[in-house]
C-alpha cells in the first residue's frame, strides 16, 4: 500500500517545536509519510529554540529534501501528495508564495500545491503583523484549499504545559489532512 505523502516545509520563523511535534504525529500514522524540506534559516532557528539537531529532526521525517533541490518530486504536480504544511511559515515565505516567486523547493512545492488545488496549510508566524503581511495573508486565504493557521495559544482545553499547547496546535495543523490526534481536545461547548 502506498502511503499518503505530506510535504512539510519549515522556514526561519519562530515555532520549530511545533514542526517537531507535527513530524512525530505524522510518524504515528501508519498510512502517512512526511517529506521534509527545511530552509537554512529554519535550521538556524531550530538550534535556538530546541535541543534537537538538524539530523535528529531529519530522522523524524520519512524523506528529507534540500531547499535547493528544485528538480525533486514535490516540484511537479504529477508528484502525488495529500498537500503541504509549512510550519513555521515566515512572512518572507508568505510573500514568496503570494507572488508566485518559486525560488526554492519550499516555494515551488507550495506553488504546485496551489496549482493542483491540494491543501496548503500555513502556520504563519510573525507579530505584530504589518499591513503588507495582512494583505498577503488575506489574499492567500481567498485561494481554494489554502488555510492560514497561525500557531496561537488556546486555553479552553486547560493546558498544563507548553507541550500541551504545542500538541494542540500541531493537531490543528494536521487535521486538514485527515489526521486525528487523540490528545486533541475539541471545543464541546459550555
Brief summary:
With 190 residues, this protein is α/β, with parallel strands linked by helices. The chain has helices spanning 16-27, 40-49, 54-60, 91-99, 105-115, 131-141, 162-174; strands at 4-10, 32-38, 63-66, 83-89, 120-124, 146-148.
Account of the 3D structure:
This protein has 190 residues and is α/β, with parallel strands linked by helices. The protein has 7 helices and 6 strands. Helix 1 (16-27) links the parallel strand 1 (4-10) and strand 2. Residues 4-175 form the Flavoprotein domain. Its EC number is 2.5.1.129. This is Flavin prenyltransferase UbiX.
List keywords for this structure.
six-stranded parallel sheet; Rossmann fold; 190 residues; alpha/beta; 38% helix
Report the mean per-residue pLDDT as an integer.
96
Q: Which sequence of strands runs across the widest sheet?
A: 3-2-1-4-5-6
Q: Number of DSSP strands?
A: 6
SSE series: EHEHHEEHHEHEH
Strand count, sense and barrel status of the largest sheet are:
6 strands, parallel
The count of domains is 1
Structural class, by secondary structure, is alpha/beta
Catalytic activity: dimethylallyl phosphate + FMNH2 = prenylated FMNH2 + phosphate
Domain Flavoprotein: 4-175
EC number: 2.5.1.129
Protein name: Flavin prenyltransferase UbiX
Amino acid at each position: 500500500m502506498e502511503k499518503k505523502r505530506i510535504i512539510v516545509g519549515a522556514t526561519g520563523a519562530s515555532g520549530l517545536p511545533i514542526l517537531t511535534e507535527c513530524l512525530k504525529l505524522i510518524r504515528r500514522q501508519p498510512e502517512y509519510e512526511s517529506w521534509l524540506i527545511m530552509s537554512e534559516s529554519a535550521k538556524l532557528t531550530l538550534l535556538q529554540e530546541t535541543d534537537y539537531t538538524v539530523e535528529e529532526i531529519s530522522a523524524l521525517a520519512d524523506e528529507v529534501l534540500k531547499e535547493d533541490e528544485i528538480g525533486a518530486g514535490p516540484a511537479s504536480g504529477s508528484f502525488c501528495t495529500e498537500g503541504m504544511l509549512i510550519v513555521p511559515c515566515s512572512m518572507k515565505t508568505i510573500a514568496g508564495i503570494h507572488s508566485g516567486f518559486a525560488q526554492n523547493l519550499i516555494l515551488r512545492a507550495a506553488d504546485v500545491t496551489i496549482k493542483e488545488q491540494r491543501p496548503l496549510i500555513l502556520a504563519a508566524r510573525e507579530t505584530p503583523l504589518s499591513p503588507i503581511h495582512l494583505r498577503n495573508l488575506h489574499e492567500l486565504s481567498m485561494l481554494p484549499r489554502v488555510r492560514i493557521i497561525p500557531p496561537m495559544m488556546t486555553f479552553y482545553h486547560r493546558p498544563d504545559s507548553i507541550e500541551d499547547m504545542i500538541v494542540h496546535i500541531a493537531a490543528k495543523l494536521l487535521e486538514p489532512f485527515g489526521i486525528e490526534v487523540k490528545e486533541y481536545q475539541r471545543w464541546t461547548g459550555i
